[in-house]
Every structure is written in C-alpha cells, then in structure tokens.
Amino acid sequence: MKCKLCEWKKHYKKIYEDDLVVAVWDSPYVRGHVTVILKRHADNLTELSLEEATAMMNVWIKVGKAIEQTLHPSIINWQINCNWTRHVHGHIYPRWESDPDWGEPIHLPTKEQAHNKEYVIKELSPDDLLKIEDLLFHKN
Ligand SMILES: [Zn+2]
After folding, report:
1. Cα–Cα distance, 9 to 27 (Å, whole number)
2. pLDDT tens across 93-137, in order?
3. In the sheet that 21-25 helps form, which strands lie side by side, from edge to edge?
4. pTM to 2 decimals?
C-alpha cells in the first residue's frame, strides 16, 4: 500500500514536477503555501544523494522565486520536515508583516480549529495562479 505522498495526485494539486521532486499547493490557510516533496522514500535529509538534494533545493528556490515575484510576501519561511511521512519534504510559507503571527513560526490550524472555521482560507486568485505557472514553465 502506498503512502499519502506517494499518492500525492489524489490529495494535492501539482505546481511543478521533475524526475525526482514534485511541488504541490498545500494548506489553504497560508496564502501561497507550497510543499516540495522528494518522490522516493527517504526518512531523513542525510539519506539524500547530492543529485536529490540539489534537485530539491533547485525546485524550492525556483518555486520560491515565482511566489516572490507574484505574491510579493514580506519574507518566505522555509521549513524542511521528515516527520509524519517517509518523504523528505520542504515547505514554502510566504509571510506578510500583516500576518497575526508575524515574527513567529507559522501556525497551521488543528483539525478542530479548521472544522470550527477559526482560520480563514486564503486561496490564490486565478490571476496569481496563472502568473506563477507562467514564471515556472516559461521563464527561469
Ligand atoms: Zn510514499
């Protein structure tokens, strides 16, 4: 049986993909939140080959630049995790000084908070999505 990130197509919308890595839109509670996922199982960053580590960093930066040029965040928080899944993955969290938790690590809602609508969904506009896709697939 495959895991959730092996079956990412069932759970996420792709923003970018190459042979080693896929980048997907993640939590709708952080505007522009993208997760870059190593396609194969690796339990820790130290298990990656240089080629895999380079591929992950390249996609992270490429997507991050497209987010910067389109959404103009105050800063981006970058977070690499190897926790609940066997896929090393890196988050891109665009942050704005107007965020209620500016200056602190990002806080995603618990399932209960999301269910009780304590957090507001921050979808990207169709125009912003098109601009980001254009930057990723037509320019370097
Ligand atoms: Zn997997």
Report:
1. 15
2. 999 999 888 989 888 888 888 888 888 888 899 999 999 989 998
3. 13-17, 21-25, 34-38, 89-95, 75-81
4. 0.90
For the chain, the domain total comes to 1
Distance 86 CA to ligand 1 centre (A): 6
**Other beta carbons within 10 Å of 139:** 9
User: Does any domain span residue 138?
Assistant: no
Which pLDDT score is estimated for 24? 96
For residue 79, how far is its CA from the centre of ligand 1 (angstroms)?
A: 19
Q: Which domain holds residue 112?
A: 8-132
Q: What stretch of H or E contains 66?
A: helix 50-71
Gap from CA of 135 to ligand 1 centroid (Å): 29
| C-alpha of residue 125 to centroid of ligand 1, in Å | 31
Residue-wise pLDDT tens digits, 16-53? 999 999 999 998 889 999 999 999 999 999 999 999 99
CATH number, domain with residue 114 = 3.30.428.10
Report how far ligand 1's centroid is from the alpha carbon of 39 (Å): 7
Using the mean position of ligand 1's atoms as its centre, give its distance from the Cα of residue 38 in Å. 9
